[in-house]
Write a structure and sequence with these properties.
Helix content is about 75%, strand content about 0%. With about 450 residues, the protein is mostly helical.
């Protein structure tokens, strides 16, 4: 049976892993690339920093709601469990598979990008990109097959190295006597229609860069003390990420004027060239590799937990609940890894990234609504942690999610059509799986 002791996840993860997986699963190459694009959209120093702060506040509101949800239902799979409990099995099934798709694509993408950055450092390996990608995937599969503790240790080490790299880059930027910080503009140019449109477009990139902030919730079932560790890690991790993102942007603008940065495809590389000369590009490449290894490790661990939760409830194969001696959901890991291998070989998964932010916003919005619903439908459910200033913080998070979703539909209607198509096609499959359970 899927609920037998041999198929249960081990409680072996603590607060340090939680913070490490949140940082590791969030901070990637995005923060090194997006400042230039956002500078081009907004062309206003203070509005750019305000955009990153706004995105951070939205995520902080989410952390507030998820702290209650994850401690109330500390199960593997994260959001899927809360939505299923509040809105029924089909809503849970659909959100679970949406969440799985979003989290199962990144490992292939990061393996390929790490191989590309490795080739920048070692050009003689140019013909071995796919081999490096597949070797990297296999190495991480073997690491996680050896047990959860080894994966946890790697996550903590790589996340720490990542933070050290970013702090060093920020310090180096502020030590440079660079561009002057412009004064806050008092005219009405900030409120022009073009800038308002740019603000919402930039938020799509910013939300994508913050994606991964709720990573700790996928591991709630394996946490030694979820009631205390999950809220602590969500708040401290999110605040640390927000601080790093705002400081990185401010640091880049300290080195380069906004007009120059707006023309940059890889802002960090252009900044590093000024700070460190021609070797600057290599320094940014090394920082990128550390960032990517940390985020790859996190995303090797997340999808198997979602698949494990879906399998336990009969929405995937029963063997998906099989756990090895090291505490790894072994079948779920292998299935996810074969999916990553397939994507590496065909190399056409980038299209799926275009609606990853879409799906994330939908799942988060459903989770916030689930919190509101469960407070009324199951008021006596044990709640070790209660979100601050409920229900207003959750309602605001839900309104922001709906507003962002509306903006995404306006800017990318094709992805929305695909998502609706997936929802329609999934219902017959859900009915088939339900029949098998009987």
């Amino acid at each position: 049976m899927s609920d037998s002791p041999k198929n249960q996840l081990q409680k072996s993860l603590g607060l340090s892993f939680n913070i490490a997986v949140l940082i590791g699963g969030t901070i990637g190459v995005g923060i090194l690339r997006t400042p230039g694009t956002i500078a081009e959209m907004l062309n206003n120093y203070w509005l750019i920093l305000a955009s990153w702060l706004f995105g951070g506040l939205y995520v902080l509101l989410g952390a507030n709601s998820y702290s209650e949800l994850a401690t109330m239902l500390p199960k593997a799979g994260g959001s899927y469990n809360y939505i299923k409990r509040a809105l029924g099995e089909y809503a849970g099934f659909l959100s679970g598979w949406y969440d799985y798709i979003v989290n199962a694509i990144p490992p292939a993408f990061y393996c390929i990008v790490i191989s590309e950055y490795t080739i920048i450092l070692f050009p003689q390996l140019a013909n071995y990109s796919t081999v490096i990608s597949i070797s990297l995937l296999i190495a991480f599969v073997l690491l996680h097959l050896s047990g959860v503790k080894n994966g946890s240790l790697i996550q903590q080490i790589t996340s720490l190295l990542k933070v050290i790299c970013f702090v060093a880059l920020v310090v180096a930027c502020f030590m440079y006597s660079g561009a002057e910080i412009p004064p806050i503009k008092t005219d009405n140019s900030v409120f022009q229609i073009g800038l308002i449109f740019g603000f919402f477009k930039s938020l799509q990139l910013i939300i994508g860069t913050y994606n991964g902030w709720n990573a700790v919730c996928f591991f709630a079932e394996e946490n030694e003390n979820p009631n205390k560790n999950i809220p602590k890690s969500l708040y401290s991790g999110v605040l640390l990420v927000v601080a790093i993102y705002i400081l990185v942007n401010a640091a880049f603008f300290h080195v380069l004027p906004i007009e120059t940065l707006a023309k940059s495809n890889l802002a960090a590389a252009d900044v590093a060239k000024i700070l460190f000369g021609e070797s600057g590009a290599k320094i940014v490449t090394v920082i990128s590799i550390f960032s990517l290894i940390s985020i790859l490790n996190a995303f090797m661990m997340i999808p198997p937990r979602i698949l494990y939760g879906l399998s336990r409830d009969g929405f995937f194969i029963e063997k998906g609940t099989q756990v090895n001696k090291g505490g790894t959901p072994i079948v779920a890991l292998l299935v996810s890894s074969f999916f990553s291998l397939f994507l590496i070989c065909i190399g056409s998964f980038e299209v799926l990234f275009s609606f990853a932010a879409f799906i994330s916003i939908i799942v988060w919005g459903l989770a916030y609504y689930s919190l509101l619903k469960l407070r009324t439908s199951e008021p006596h459910l044990p709640r070790p942690y209660r979100s601050f200033w409920y229900p207003w913080t959750t309602i605001i998070a839900l309104i922001f999610s709906i507003a962002l979703l509306a903006g995404f539909i306006y800017s990318d209607p094709k992805s929305f059509i695909i998502i609706v198509g997936i929802a329609i096609a999934s219902y017959p499959l859900f009915l088939v799986l339900k029949k098998k359970q009987k």
